[in-house]
Amino acid sequence: MNIAKMATGHLDGPSMWIGGQTDGRIIALSSLGAAPMRGTPLTIEQILSWADAYYAREKTWPQAKSAGAPADGPSGRETWRNLDQVLRNGLRGLPAGSSLARLLAKHRGVRNRKGLPRLTVRQILFWADLHEERTGAWPTDNSGPIEDAPGETWCAVEMALSHGQRGMPGGSSLALLLAERRQRRHRARVPPLTLPQILGWADAHRARTGAWPLSTSGTIPGTGGETWRCVDNALRRSRRGLPGGFSLAQLLADQRGARNHLDLPRLTVKQVLLWADAHRRRTGKWPKASSGPILCSGGETWRHIDNALRQGNRGLPGDLSLSRLLARERNVRPGSDRPLLSIEQVLGWADACHARTGCWPHRRLGAIAEAPGETWKNINVALREGWRGFAGGSTLHQVLVEHRDLGKGVPSVARGKLANLPLINS
Question: Cα angle at 186 between 180 and 188, to 5 degrees?
Answer without folding.
Answer: 110
